[in-house]
Design a protein that fits this description.
about 1000 residues; 22-stranded antiparallel β-barrel; about 55% strand; globular
């Protein structure tokens, strides 16, 4: 166990007398009941209400004896409090999902008038389909102000009102949030200067398992893949940006709690949404629909909510790529030469399906039970058609020429080269299943809440990654010119005299098959016990809790080469397809034109894996693993035990009401990792050597928070805490993964591939490190929130100092390789592995603003300015943090009047560092250029229960840009095009 750093002694938390609230507000505040509470003394009336409604009541100062209004009818408990205390001379503040604090007005302080109740006593809850964007913004501001943490959030209605394909794209409008897109759609979320790994994602407060990337060697580990989860049936998401003792640990950046609705959250309802989307590039129309409803028993004690949703989308994405650079000496000077230039046309057919079930039962006045289950599938059929024009050393061959600008080759002509025509197919299937059951039991003054949850994330290639590669003969001529692509986001030209439409000119194709399956499981049990305190100066509640979690990851990979079945020959039908004629028109001023492409059906029938599988679509379990397979596969087990104590405070400081909490969490983690490495036995043969590791780590996590009410409209918040993020499961793996191009070359050619490597062969690889320790961060937060009529403004500053930061370190390793003839060979490979060698810091400023005019015009905007870097303690080298932009901002103007609603959404972020497998060349770090996206949506109410919705995404037709190191080293241009959808929402 590592001792607490001097920067945050436990005494600091005690001196502050504060902490962060852990439980974000949920839909409980919208539950409605039949109430009949007569006018009486306020203390008695409020106690009676909370006994019925299961709310938590705290009196600051003496118990009030003012008379209240009578409350009769069906309404939520919040509406009841507002009606009951109207004109009573009492002030109150709702806290979280269930709490309310009440105190008497003083003569020296102006009274805060509570908001007037609505014309009808029932509050709308987030699942209502027919909502206004302004209403959802107001709801977000209310929840933000009532929370005793620094937080933000979105609701399902807001996701519906904004043109957002998924939850990640809705969250990017929140201060402090930026997202990373994948093929035109939001995938990963970064918060407060820290990338996706540092966000702890939970579902209704319970941990969830993580889907893994199964497309290439890039592994996301603990990064939640928001693209795999449908947003249609969610109640919303809350971002808790500062820690509390009872918050599930793991998120140094933030805790993102995805919320679902409950069976007793409100009245019965039925909603239907039906629509279709159109992608500009593909021209395909795809369905989009959902159905949800709630049933509540006549006595209001039992409720069930359920829903189904399905969404399809067909996209086309152009990529113009450089596959990294190598240094070559030309005329005595070292210049950076592209290994190759390639054009890739990617087509994806996506389908998301979701089903949700929630049930609530008030068994007794002091006992209630709940159950929720969410299952979501994301299927993605991918086809990539690619041309690869070899460069590298060929640029120095006789008859070739090159243009060098700022030490980088930006144009050239190859006289004696080779073009590779390759196609990749894969059908990805991602399954998410989460089930949670809990209870709320009032045992005298205690409120006890046990909960058990289970989560599964399974990612498998139903069609394994199949790469069909056929080369032109040697001696082909071609030329390229990048022009000013880094500025204009359009390259100048790529041309060749070689006939790209004649399949007879291609060599016999090779078919490589990679089968991958990843399974994550999480089982968690926790019990919390909470008690309100009376007569204890400054303290309002005490809470204890324990948590036990068991998480596991099993990742299996198999690589094989398929061969043409005996007796069959290649024919023209194998390459019967042709790419569109206008392909790359948006990325290249002078593109090479269309080319022939492989027919997957022909190869499925004509090829198999000899002696291993009849066909070319095996699962990992269908194949006996080779030594290389075992070296690429791994298993990780992780057990977590945690206990916490938390004290809530409420009182006054210099005449200003204050509230908050403080406490400490103790966390123990045990890790087990299994893997393999190839070696050579005494007889000189390849042997597989198992590798196993067991380790543990313990840490104390104190936290504290204070909120000071400056006046009826302004809040000042201060927070300090320690938090952890565990290493990525992929970083913990005991696996060694050389670049796939290197593995194939050595397998085919043996020692010759090492002594005289082919052009494009890269002696690099990646691997894990089971001995990694968690990231440990000290966090400081300060925020100011101002609510004014029809709007709000918030400003927050934050600083995080992270010890044991994990950085990738390159070092040569001598690895053993299998060969086709069976004899092992060894080669020195520059391996990249994670190490606890760094310290990182991130400091930033967040701004949030919204304002609505009486005319119906409104503006919702946010901005985040971040300064972040990591320092390698061993070398002093400074590095940018992955996934972090210096500046990200969003502006969302809207107009609402009568049945019409219009809104625009512009989101922009500056450049940031990312990592990916660059088509078999190994994991590479690169920079994603600044980019902005403009989306729009229009709604029209058709009567009181229906609404037409027209949405458009990426109206700017943004071209993605990436470079290696600096802008002079172009790496990729990408374009997905615009998308449009039309739908009908109906509610009963």
């Amino acid at each position: 166990m590592k001792p607490l750093a001097p920067s945050l002694p436990v005494g600091v938390a005690a001196a502050f007398g504060l902490a962060l609230a852990a439980a974000p507000a949920s839909a409980q505040d919208a539950q409605v009941r039949d109430l009949d509470i007569p006018a009486q003394e306020a203390s008695a009336a409020l106690v009676e209400l909370c006994l019925v409604a299961d709310c938590e009541l705290v009196f600051i100062g003496p118990r009030p004896d003012q008379r209240t209004q009578a409350v009769r009818g069906r309404m939520s408990w919040r509406s009841a409090v507002r009606r009951m205390l109207d004109g009573a001379g009492l002030r109150y503040r709702f806290m979280g999902a269930r709490g309310v604090r009440v105190w008497a007005e003083t003569r020296t302080r102006p009274a805060i008038l509570p908001p007037m109740p609505d014309a009808t006593p029932t509050e709308l809850e987030p699942v209502v389909v027919l909502g206004r964007l302004s209403d959802q913004i107001d709801e977000s501001v209310r929840r933000k102000r009532e929370a005793d943490v620094i937080s933000d959030g979105v609701s399902a209605a807001r996701i519906g009102e904004l043109p957002a394909a998924n939850l990640a794209e809705a969250l990017q409008r929140v201060p402090g949030v930026a997202i990373e897109r994948e093929v035109g759609e939001g995938q990963f979320v970064s918060v407060r200067g820290l990338g996706p790994l540092f966000q702890s994602v939970t579902l209704n407060g319970a941990p969830v398992a993580f889907n893994e990337n199964i497309r290439n060697s890039t592994q996301s580990g603990r990064q939640f893949r928001f693209r795999a989860l449908s947003a249609d049936l969610l109640a919303g998401a809350r971002l808790t940006k500062s820690s509390t003792p009872d918050l599930i640990d793991g998120g140094i950046g933030a805790n993102i709690d995805i919320e679902t609705v409950g069976g007793l959250d409100d009245e019965p309802f039925l909603t239907l949404r039906a629509g279709a989307g159109l992608e500009q590039r593909t021209g395909r129309i795809s369905p989009d629909m959902s159905l949800a409803g709630r049933l509540v028993s006549a006595d209001g004690d039992r409720g069930v909510v359920a829903g189904l949703a399905e969404e399809e989308r067909s996209v086309m994405y152009d990529r113009f790529q450089i596959q990294r650079y190598r240094d070559v000496v030309v005329d005595g000077q070292t210049v950076a030469v592209p290994n190759d230039v390639r054009t890739t046309l990617e087509r994806e057919d996506r389908r998301r399906r979701s089903a949700f079930l929630g049930a609530d039962w008030r068994v007794l006045p002091g006992l209630s039970l709940d159950l929720d289950a969410l299952v979501s599938t994301f299927d993605n059929a991918i086809r990539e058609d690619r041309l690869v024009f070899g460069l590298g050393e060929q640029l120095r061959a006789a008859g070739s020429a090159m243009t060098v600008r700022d030490g980088v080759v930006t144009a050239g002509r190859i006289a004696d080269g080779e073009i590779d025509n390759n196609t990749e197919f894969s059908d990805q299937s991602h399954l998410n299943l989460a089930v949670s059951a809990g209870a709320v039991w009032r045992a005298g003054p205690w409120r006890i809440t046990p909960r058990v949850s289970g989560s599964l994330a399974r990612s498998v290639l139903d069609r394994p990654l199949q790469r069909i590669s056929a080369s032109s003969p040697d001696g082909v001529a071609y030329a390229f010119d990048l022009g000013d692509a880094a500025d204009s986001r359009r390259a100048a030209s790529l041309s060749t005299a070689f006939d790209l439409l004649d399949p007879t000119l291609l060599a016999l194709p090779r078919l490589h098959v990679r089968a991958v399956e990843s399974r994550d499981d999480d089982i968690t049990a926790r019990v919390d016990a909470r008690r309100l305190l009376e007569g204890v100066p400054g303290l309002s509640a005490v809470q204890f809790g324990v948590q036990l979690s068991d998480r596991s990851r099993d990742y299996q990979r198999r690589d094989r080469e398929a061969l043409l079945r005996p007796g069959l020959d290649m024919d023209a039908a194998a390459y019967a397809l042709t790419t569109p004629g206008d392909v790359f028109a948006g990325l290249l001023a002078a593109p090479p034109g269309p080319w022939i492409a492989a027919d997957s059906g022909w190869f499925d029938a004509a090829f198999d894996i000899p002696g291993a599988f009849d066909g070319v679509s095996p699962r990992p379990g269908d194949l006996t693993p080779t030594g290389a397979d075992l070296q690429n596969s791994y298993a990780v087990g992780e057990r977590v035990a945690a206990a916490f104590v938390r004290l809530d405070i409420a009182g006054a400081l210099a005449g200003h009401p204050v509230f908050g909490n403080f406490g400490v969490r103790r966390v123990e983690t045990w890790t087990e990792v299994d893997g393999s490495i190839l070696g050579v036995d005494a007889a000189g043969a390849v042997e597989v050597r198992p590798e196993a590791y067991s380790g543990s780590h313990g840490v104390w996590l104190p936290s504290a928070n204070l909120a000071i009410e400056l006046d009826q409209d302004q809040l000042l918040r201060l927070a300090v805490s320690r938090s952890i993020t565990r290493p990525s499961l992929a970083d913990l793996r005991s696996a060694t993964v050389p670049a796939s191009t290197l593995v194939r070359s050595i397998y085919d050619h043996g020692q010759a591939a090492i002594d005289d490597p082919e052009p494009g062969t890269i002696f690099t690889g990646v691997g894990g490190n089971p001995t990694l320790r968690p990231y440990l961060s000290t966090n400081y937060d300060l925020s100011w929130e101002w609510s004014f009529p029809r709007g709000a403004l918030s400003v927050a500053v934050f600083h995080k100092s992270i010890d044991d930061f994990i950085l990738t370190v390159e070092a040569p390793e001598r690895l053993v390789f299998e060969t086709r003839d069976g004899g092992p060979v060894a080669a020195e490979v520059m391996m990249s592995r994670p190490r606890n060698v760094g310290r990182a810091r991130t400091t930033g400023l967040e701004l949030g603003f919204n304002h609505r005019l009486p005319s119906g015009l409104g503006l919702w905007a946010s901005a985040t300015l971040t300064e972040a870097e990591a320092t390698d303690r061993t070398t002093g080298e400074r590095r940018d943090l992955a996934g972090v932009s210096d500046l990200a901002w969003s502006v969302n103007p809207y107009f609402e009047r009568g049945p019409l609603g219009l809104n625009l959404s512009w989101s922009w972020r500056s450049a940031f560092v990312s990592e990916a497998d660059m088509q078999g060349g190994g994991i590479a770090s690169f920079v994603v250029a600044p980019a902005g996206y403009l989306d729009a949506q229009a709604t029209w109410a058709v009567g009181p229960s229906a609404q037409l919705v027209l949405a458009a995404t990426n109206l700017t037709d943004t071209t993605d840009l990436a470079w290696e190191g600096d802008r002079s080293r172009l790496l990729q241009l990408g374009r997905a095009g615009r998308g449009f959808s039309l739908g009908l929402r109906w509610s009963l």
